[in-house]
Amino acid sequence: MAPYHCAIMQDTFPDSLARIVGASHVLTGDDAAPYCRDWRKRYQGQALCVVKPGSTQEVAEVVKACAAAGVAIVPQGGNTGLVGGSVPNDDGRNIVLNLQRMHAVRAIDVANQTITAEAGCILQNVQQAASDAGWLFPLSMASEGSCTLGGNLGANAGGTQVLRYGNSRELCLGLEVVTPQGEVWSSLQGLRKDNTGYDLRDLFVGSEGTLGIITAATMKLYPQPKVQLTAWAAVPSVQAAVDLLGLARQHLHAGLTGFEMMGQFALSLVDKHYPQLRVPLYRDTPYCVLLENADFEGEQHARERFEALLEAAMEQGCVTDAIVAENLTQAHTLWHVRESISLAQAEEGLNIKHDISVPISAIPQFVQETDAALAEHVPSVRIVNFGHLGDGNLHYNVQAPEGVDPARFLAEQEPGINTIVFDAVHRFGGSISAEHGIGQLKRDTLPKYKSPVALGLMRAIKQALDPQGIMNPGRVL
Length: 477
Hints:
Elements: H1 7-21, E1 26-27, E2 49-51, H2 56-69, E3 73-76, E4 95-98, E5 105-109, E6 114-118, H3 123-132, E7 135-136, H4 149-155, H5 162-165, H6 168-171, E8 172-178, E9 184-186, H7 200-204, E10 213-220, E11 222-223, E12 227-235, H8 238-252, E13 256-263, H9 264-273, E14 287-295, H10 299-316, E15 321-324, H11 328-339, H12 341-348, E16 351-352, E17 355-357, H13 363-377, E18 382-388, E19 393-399, H14 406-427, H15 446-449, H16 452-465
Parallel strand pairs: 2-4, 3-4
Antiparallel strand pairs: 1-2, 5-6, 6-10, 7-11, 8-9, 8-10, 12-14, 12-15, 13-14, 13-18, 16-19, 17-19, 18-19
Helix pairs in contact: 1-2, 8-10, 9-12, 13-14
């Protein structure tokens, strides 16, 4: 697309936005460039400017100005997304609306067990505010030190505790949203029952900024467990990991808050690039599992349950070896290993990422068949298979064979590999995006795997709410 040639717009529109948010909060040129590149360094766009409002009212005024001028808006939080959904395209016509200045925790309602925070609040800060008040906010993921609550909701992020608490949508009780017309809709009361029509909250959660801009949210809080125990188990197969999940549900019940599966090659990358982490048990087993047990009675009760689980698992042959963290430091180290897989894979070179979900019962056969298909397509291909087995979400990533240039591999092999993986996901009744979203990375792929009826409904909703098409254009649809 040709560059934007309207000199009057380029000269005056950022100035008009500066009158709303303050001149120091409108960035152009080199100052805007860091906000126009995604975390994976896969997409580099150009923005008319980057605008950083400090309140919901300022967001509303910026949106009204953009709607009047016909300027598109790319909402952005921590810019940690993996599908290119929070950076502008390269035509220079969009503004980036970055919400990081809106980072306040507005309220904690102890009786209602809720926390209300603004969209730019870093996830880790939401967790800490809840903890300081004596509560647990369970949304957790590797990027929690930089991702924001609004971004989490925009992508319906999941993380490591979905098994027990659900993903962002399940944790959200209400939103504050600026519509594409610059109006403000709020449902921040924290109601658990409100049967007065369509559920607008769920419409905006997961919409990736294409229907409106989330500016604040009211989220559920939970009692803090008395103790959390973490175990690391070696398992002989994916089927054994699924069997272990079944046993863990029987023995730990609602106390099972995390269940992560990690392939041997994925863990070998952590060992290679971060040897100080000392990855346990992985060398002699094809897969390892990381389990977390949150107990509300006490450490002795928690350890007895864990020991009974692991004893039963070893008797059934679905665990060959295991360790239980002796203290919080050891537990954090084990989780750090898990959370370092993506970073280690990035150190190894460019790769093809898949964030897929498949019914848990079908995962063993999916992995077996898809591993074989990829090996036939690209001999010596390296598969980085890890993820949230407890909720059926795998990060089934593909690394170039040893000695093959990663950039060339990505350019030449990504379309064919994506087809193999996504066709298999579709055949097993799964989804090509479990928690990362569609963004621009999977936008053109989505119609092949999404029901035409569903796509028609989505387009109708988009047209009804955003008839000008100014909200994150070219994303999702």
